[in-house]
TrEMBL record:
InterPro entries: ATP_synth_F1_ATPase_gsu, ATP_synth_F1_gsu, ATP_synth_F1_gsu_CS
Protein name: ATP synthase gamma chain
Organism ancestry: Bacteria, Pseudomonadati, Pseudomonadota, Alphaproteobacteria, Hyphomicrobiales
Stated role: Produces ATP from ADP in the presence of a proton gradient across the membrane. The gamma chain is believed to be important in regulating ATPase activity and the flow of protons through the CF(0) complex.
Gene name linked to the record: atpG
Pfam families named among the record's database cross-references: ATP-synt (PF00231)
Keyword Coiled coil set for record: no
Any GO BP annotation: proton motive force-driven plasma membrane ATP synthesis
Native species: Rhizobium tubonense
């Protein structure tokens, strides 16, 4: 049984931890609002970008001038998984959910005889996936020094993916991230980037505009050559913003639970301390009374 001094030190230690978790919860709550607003503001743009791309793809689907980023290499042998995760922990199961989703997808592809390569964005995703797929990780990118994620960060990732595709390093590219729903709900999501799959992000078109005819200047192929790389960067940017909002929401929830658990532990330790102290006082009184009676 721990001594009174040990219990007192333990209570002081848990109280110090509780102060830290409470402060982290408040910081996450302050950052969450800004991150949530940024993620929600990026959704309409990325969805409309997907809708525009979808219209052009349908117009050029039967043409031989379609860029490779849209049509792909015609093969389905080498898959590149771009896994976006957080740079830091202490956010519950946020990172493990994304990594598990990507890991299950990789296992399924490997079981089908496909070649899998992994591109990690974020330190925690790399740390989790390297335990099983260290040999499959071909590149990693960390944004630990970036205080606020900007479009230039996503654009650099998008350009690197295009370079790898043009070098023939993969046939299909899929982006993994966590879509922010609420503070307690972040949904792991997979989005195919190459070949371009705008239907996954394009909003439903109403019947009035469903049969609209568009004319493209200079031509649809030239527009696609510029639009598809830009759409890739936009979708990656949205994924990074969704991840930031999800991370802050998960961290806020995790730190709130940790603060409550610390409070419960303090109550239990205080009760044990008081009981042991009372028992020790009672024992000393009995010894004094027994000694007095003996005299």
């Amino acid at each position: 049984m721990p001594s009174l001094k040990d219990l007192k030190n333990r209570i002081a230690s848990v109280k110090a931890t509780q102060k830290i978790t409470k402060a982290m919860k408040m910081v996450a709550a302050a950052k969450l609002r800004r991150a949530q607003e940024a993620a929600e503001a990026a959704r309409p743009y990325s969805e409309r970008m997907g809708a525009v791309l979808d219209n052009i793809v349908h117009a050029i689907s039967d043409s031989d001038d379609a860029p490779l980023l849209m049509t792909g290499t015609g093969q389905d042998k080498v898959h590149l998984l771009v896994v976006c995760s957080a740079e830091r922990g202490l956010c519950g199961g946020f990172n493990s959910q994304i990594a598990r989703f990507a890991r299950d997808h990789a296992r399924r592809l490997l079981a089908e005889g496909k070649t899998v390569k992994i591109f990690t964005v974020g330190k925690k995703g790399y740390d989790i996936l390297r335990r099983e797929f260290a040999s499959l990780i071909v590149e990693r990118k960390e944004l630990r020094d970036v205080k606020r994620v900007g479009f230039e960060n996503a654009d650099s990732i998008g350009k690197r993916l295009i370079e790898m595709f043009e070098a023939g390093e993969f046939d299909v590219c899929t982006l993994f991230y966590s879509e922010f729903k609420s503070v307690i709900s972040q949904v792991p999501t997979a989005l195919q980037l190459i070949p371009a799959s705008p239907a996954a992000t394009a909003p439903v078109v109403d019947a009035e505009h469903a049969n609209a005819v568009y004319e493209y200047e200079p031509d649809a192929a030239s527009i696609l050559a510029d639009l598809i790389p830009r759409n890739m960067s936009v979708q990656i940017f949205r994924a990074l913003l969704e991840n930031v909002a999800g991370e802050m929401g998960a961290k806020m929830s995790a730190m709130d639970n940790a603060t409550r658990n610390a409070g419960e532990m303090i109550n239990k330790l205080t009760l044990s301390y008081n009981r042991q102290r009372q028992a020790q006082i009672t024992k000393e009184l009995i010894e004094i009374i027994s000694g007095a009676e003996a005299l």
